[in-house]
Amino acid sequence: MNLFLKFFFILPIAFCILQFGAKSAPNVLFIAVDDLNDWVGFMGGYSGQVKTPNLDRLAKMGTAFTNAHTASPVCCPSRVAVLSGQLPTTSGIYSNRHWWKPNVPELVTIPAHFRNNGYKTVGAGKIFHHTEGNNPPESWDDFQALEFHDDTFARTRRDQYPFIPDQDAPKGFPFSGIELYSNEVDWAGLDKPESDFDDARAAQYGIDFLNSHRGSPFFLACGFFRPHMPWYFPKKYLDLYPLDEIEVPADLPEDLDDVPEAGKQLAMKKHVDLKKVRDAGKWATAIQHYLASISFMDAQLGQLLETLEKSPHAADTVIVLWSDHGWHLGEKQHWHKRTLWEETTRVPLIVVSPHLGESNQVCAQPTSLLDLFPTLIELCGLPVVADQAMDGVSLVPWLLYPAKHRTRNAVTVHELQHMSVRSNQYRYIRYIDGSEELYDLWGDPNEWDNLIGDPSFEPIRKDLSAELPTQFAPSAKSYTQFEFDPRPYTWTDKKTGAVVSGSR
Ligand SMILES: [Ca+2]
Ligand SMILES: [Ca+2]
Predict the structure, then answer these.
(1) Using one digit for the tens of pLDDT, what is the confidence trace for 32-89?
(2) Ligand nearest, relative to CA of residue 82
(3) Residue 224 C-alpha to ligand 1 middle, in angstroms?
(4) CA distances from 265 to 73, 283, 333 (A)
(5) Are 305 and 298 in contact (CB under 8 A)?
(6) Nearest-ligand number for the alpha carbon of 438
(7) What are the pLDDT digits (tens) for 252-303?
(8) Residues whose beta carbons lie less than 5 angstroms from ion ligand 1
(9) Which domains does the chain have, with CATH numbers?
(10) Cα Rg of the chain (Å, integer)
């Protein structure tokens, strides 16, 4: 066949096969992890040895984005941002007090978009925020809810957990030996079968689905709750982390001296927990339990990946894994999340495409979890979501060329107008009162030395500040302004009487 015929005959056929054949609609395995910072093997965020063989294996299967950041440092707004492709400043969903569906009923989320385009969408565990009213059934053909078998007694808010039975705290609680912020802030290796833990149940749901499903393309979401608190897991995972090998974060008592008042307030929120933990001599013990939680979650991930690899879906399934935000374990005097520093914003993000990009790639360009929705749309050949602005961009160019320079940096928004932008080298923070921080992560990876006020960094400050949002969607209505009915999954606006339904 001459070149002319090849061009006009074979290429279009190849194109058609790619577009409309089996490969035009790859499956998706969508894995969410909760409160996992950069303490994973392939990111090197922990100064000691963290054991995450399965996260590391997954990273090697595709592209690991090692400079990826959350859109918001709290569960609900972060997850809504990932699942809608919009910053809180676009959607108005800024906090855990905001139900997205009654506030922005037209918002199309990732699972809904896949379902609208012929995919079978199923899931288990924590994908949207885990309290009642955040996970409309309309997005899913089937969903196994997170039932909190690990810590039923910690879910004391009846309005947030109406589906969980009342249960007294067990004998010996708190297992950490310290009374902390809430029942949730506890840790222990527990003596119960691994299969009884919530994350094992979520993994098992995915395993059963992969083993039984045949036919139509699927979107399978698996949401792991660890290392979210409480740090409960099967006891054996503690053996991975002998206490005398635990590294505690470098402690610089004067670190907050050059942080503006608004930043200090974020750092000191729940600082009392860190103080109690350290005063009790249990800082290393707490870290040991965070690490063991990570390894327990990693083991569940491993079972899921192993099942996928042995299934007929292996060659045609896109895999993405992300964590909703990070966690401080004492850096900046902080214990928990809800800040704009590296410990909270930097998260694992892995994309594996069976048809695109090499394996074992690392992309160190600044990326955002907001990029996931456009990436999945492109990888699966779905139409863009009509009339829905997206604040991220597809990562496909970086799957093809991981070193490709990216001019767009990663923006994080915390509540109303506390904001940060992370570039390749720098982090710029501006709080609602206009106060600022600037760090050079290459020379100062701990973000100890605030460079604001140094005239030689003024051009960088100016460039980065220009990337922060300038338009702010009004804050969504608080959940207290709605009446939520889990059956048939409706919200009634207490003032207007308007009803929004999220039922299937
Ligand atoms: Ca979280
Ligand atoms: Ca400092």
Answers:
(1) 999 999 999 999 999 999 999 999 999 999 999 999 999 999 999 999 999 999 999 9
(2) 1
(3) 10
(4) 15, 22, 11
(5) no
(6) 2
(7) 889 999 999 999 999 999 889 999 999 999 999 999 999 999 999 999 999 9
(8) 34-35, 75, 324
(9) 29-401 (3.40.720.10)
(10) 23
